[in-house]
Amino acid sequence: MDRLTAMKMFVRVVETGSFSAVARELNSTQPTISKNIAELESWLGAKLLNRSTRSLRLTETGTDYYERCVAILQDVEEAEHVVGQLQTQPKGQVRVSAVVAFGSQHIVPRLDRFYASYPDIRVDLRLNDRVVDLVEEGVDVAFRMGTLADSSLIARKICSSPVIASAAPAYLKQYGIPSHPRELKDHNYIVHSDTKGRQEAVFQDDGEAFHVRVDGNLSTNSSEAMRAALRAGLGISVMPHWLVGDLLESGELVEILEDFKPSPLEIYAVYPPGRHLPSRVRCLIDFFTQEFRQCPAINGRALPELPLPQAAG
User: 152 versus 42: which is more confidently predicted?
Assistant: First the structure.
């Protein structure tokens, strides 16, 4: 038994509450995880976990051992971090999470430049439109937007993406250009069916938010489908600039109702807490922070470069 590996498995089982979740995270099997923890208990001569069909509970000894394991593993991580800082090129895998459309449009097209700078880093890109549990799914960093839920995660703001109303020139030529959001009731509005309050659109007038009723003959749970529908001239919708910025630049879409823009969408890099962020993860976050800030399709304009955070010495 590799005692350090068994300790890591034990800590992750306690944190996730699931042998199967840890098995998936470590590309192992549930019996292997169970066997390692059983061998750890045998080696210690103490029971660490009370198992039932529905739950896992730490014993009193298990609670004390868990706290000591966390401290030991943090010391090991710190030692690895120090050694990693001595390497000229960071290496290893970084698991990244993002919504499907953002990952497809803004992460994948930049990976060639990222790999040119960091050839020894491998990216495991997980695209999903649900909010994933970073700890449970072993995600190193997630690119998220909007209002973040309160949690122990660390959030680093990257930039803001304007939220705009737009439509294809052909649609506006046929149905006219609304001069006020209230006029959207007379237009075909493309609805995001997973959005709370989807029969309403939010705008601002003199800094005050207000809602207008909207309706149309197409609703979809896919942001990419909404983008395609706008491009095809099927109606009007309100979407973040990062999703349609390239179509605005090409003239395939036209921004409307510019005097009533809603609040912009904040974009963050979110990652689990820890005393040290691995250099490979820090390099990826720093790279995409500068890339996203310099992308007019995301921001509506290029932003000045940020001074990069210094690694802890």
Answer: 42
